Amino acid sequence: MALFGTNGIRGIPNENYYPDFYLHLSITIGNIIKNGKFAVASDGRKTVAVLKGAVLSGLTATGHDVVDLGTLPVSGLQYYCKVNSVPGIMITASHNPPEYNGIKVIGSDGLEASPELQAMIEKQYFEARYNEVGSNASGNQSYASWEHVGSVKYDYSAKDTYIEAVLSKVDVESIREKRLSALVDCSNGATYETAPRLLRELGIRTVALNSTLDSMFPGHNPEPTEENIKSTIEIVKNLGVDFALVHDSDGDRAVFISPEGKYLDGNYTMAIITMSRLKKGDAAVTPANTSDIFINTAKKIGVKVYITKVGPPLVSRKAIEVKARLAGEETGGIIYSEHQYGRDGAMTAALFAEAVAKYGLKSMLRSLPDLYYKRSKVNTTKGFEEIKRLVLEQKHTKADFTDGVKIYLNSTDWVMLRPSGTEPIIRIYVQASSKKMGEALIRKYGELLA
After folding, report:
1. Are residues 98 and 75 part of one domain?
2. Which of 6, 107, 143, 175 counts the highest number of beta carbons within 10 A?
3. Looking at residue 363, what DSSP letter applies?
4. Which entry of 57, 94, 211, 316 is annotated as an active-site residue?
5. Is the pTM value of this prediction over 0.85?
6. How far apart are CA 118 and CA 113, in angstroms?
């Protein structure tokens, strides 16, 4: 059984995973990562206390001193880990609905756990015999003696150094001179303090929406898809701001909305930042489900684009390998390597604001490829091998198996299907030359999987 999905471990506490699972998992992590220190942070989910108590117990029981950073975007935790050379654990289920929670393991380099480290944690977890209460024979785990157990201290200043670091990477004065206005939707998550503050320090007149921490996410589902944030889009249309941005629950994603209400996912964001910041000879990394809105823009400038499987750890490590300046996904998780090799919603927001200040959003959007992109998901009882066979039976010009199965219908239209790494569903991605064609492809392949 695999514990880690595309990005961390997620489930429904007291249904999929119980408190003892997180305790034993943290004991395993504490045995494998022998740093002596850990940092822990969380978003605002209702079950944070359940998981945090178990995590703190497991880490201190294995002899680690822990600094609890409180509620903080995962990008802020990653920055803290990188700067202080300590590993970390983020308690979050990212964009999943409120009933979910889980953890992300962060290395002392600020990167999410590599596939190799994840496999090591899983192997050691399943080999341990945690049920032998009162026995020293606990499989391959060890514990600190009582006088050497770790301590817990609290430090809520990490958000300050994090925001200062983001501001240092952009031309703050040029942004302030433009006197921009924006709406920021915090999705009642971990960015409730940092996101409005960042924009205001950039001199942007800011309207904050869903900016109170609320475990039930009353504003909307914390995954900032176009469907989920329809109410925010309607507000933007009538507000007269220069742009709007929406974060997910733990703040590593940012999607944007134009003044007219056009939803701008990561495909647009990467293209806009590329036009503003990258130059010929630079490298960029993105997974196989990314639209040509970004890829063609990058290639036109002379940027070398590397393609990976879907998943932040894979994207970030490829970015390090090829020394990419920019990396990211269509979901809005963007990496700017001059800041850190982790997805960072705040850094993305600052770079986007800088691009708008320099070139104007309307002008940049007009210069991008006119393509329709949409993703969907479907529950199915079909196995993926059967799904792949059904897809390949459809008329296509070529197929790609970098991640799942992707078929090209012509020079512009393609369909990609892959099992989700975070939910028991199949994800469908479509690029088409028109909205009508794109919607038809979503319907066709959704029915094919039903």
Report:
1. yes
2. 175
3. H
4. 94
5. yes
6. 6
